[in-house]
Amino acid sequence: MILLNFRSPGDLERLLLSAISVVLRRDMSLNRRLYTWLLGPESNRAYFLKYAFQRLTLALKKLLVAQATLSVDPTRVSKISLALLDKWEIGGHVVPELFTPIMDTVFANNTDPGILASARALFDSMDPAVIWSELFSWIEQGRVTILTWTIERFNLREEEMLVRHIPQVLLYILCLLRYSELQGTQWFELVERLIALLPARAFTSNKGIDLGEELADVEVMRHVRNYYAKVRGDAGVETSLPESLNGPYFHRHLLSVLRAVGEPCPPNIPDYSLQWAIFTKKAAAIVPPLLDLDLAPVLENLHRYLSEHNGFLVLGTVIETTIALARHRHIDKQVLHISEQSSDSLSSTLIHLLWRNLAPDRSAYHVESVMYIWSLTAILSTTTIESLLANEVSRSSSMEGGKAEACVRFSVLWKHAVDKTGTAAVLTKAMMLVLRFLKGEEGSLGRVGVERWLSGLGSSAHR
Fold it and tell me: Were 92 and a residue from 58, 88, 112, 188 both cysteine, which residue would form a disulfide, CB within 3.0 to 4.6 Å?
């Protein structure tokens, strides 16, 4: 056999590269002769692995790297790989070895539509398990940028991907993030894209295994690693896939991870509580709620976090996350109404911080603050919000300086809320308290503040 007689690996690679190009001609007779040559006289996979696999793979990889005598040609390599998938004894070994180098080259040349199209054709024809075993290796290597690019540019809506691979890989990444084994905001952007792909049946499919009621993260990480190690080990072999996590287990474990969002971060570890909250907000609309795994602990955690990090971005995120959890029934709205008048409840904290952002020196946040106050009507009664705003006015009214500040803040609130639905129901109590400042002595700061607000109302006072 010719494969046995070559002493120069370079010459053998050149011969294999020329010969393998036959598959592009789509001539079945020529292909049969090629496969017989590669698999040996007894059509033996072991013969191919021993004499041709390594050199053929190296030859094709050289077409993906600029060489003195060869130009980069990822389109040709993708098309050859696609053709080899018809002969699993060969393609089952070669294509997994070429997948990552092909994707790297396409990523580096992603402005070329022809290169991207050929890679997509290969991607769509490959076994999803093989694809995800390669993508999983990228996670282990920390290659988040190319992972995100792949999710954006390639079709991941194949059924097996949606119900078998994406759920368990998503859960695996979240477990790594939970224990800071992965760090960086890009990983949160990645999991947001992954969870957005999930259909409802990803949470209900009974195919696969349940790892038990303990919902141990370490068991998930061990299972997923072993799963894709077995897939890689079985490359080129006709064998059944290992069992993935089933939908109900994935569902419960995902909610158990989300329940920990906002927990205190260990010292010397980057704090991604804000990114976790944003992810939870987006996940709330996708993940079905479960009564025994409600996300009420998230509100407690975020309330504490808000007391320590009170920037406006944090405030807005906590409000949006709270609304999303209530709207999609991951929490009982009654949780927000319990002790709602207490100064240390989440509801009162949100209104207090929004009221504070109506100050003159926070003009950049005025419109959004009023918008957030109105958005809270989705989870709190207008009576509750009205009372909480009135409390803020009362709290400021012990001194004349405080009355003047309350007037300024209320005038900002009125200005941006007067055209909104339900203005009277939300603002009446606070307005009546502000108007009482007119009983103050002439020239007092509170009275002057009210007079200034009234004089500036114009036609809006009659709306």
Answer: 88
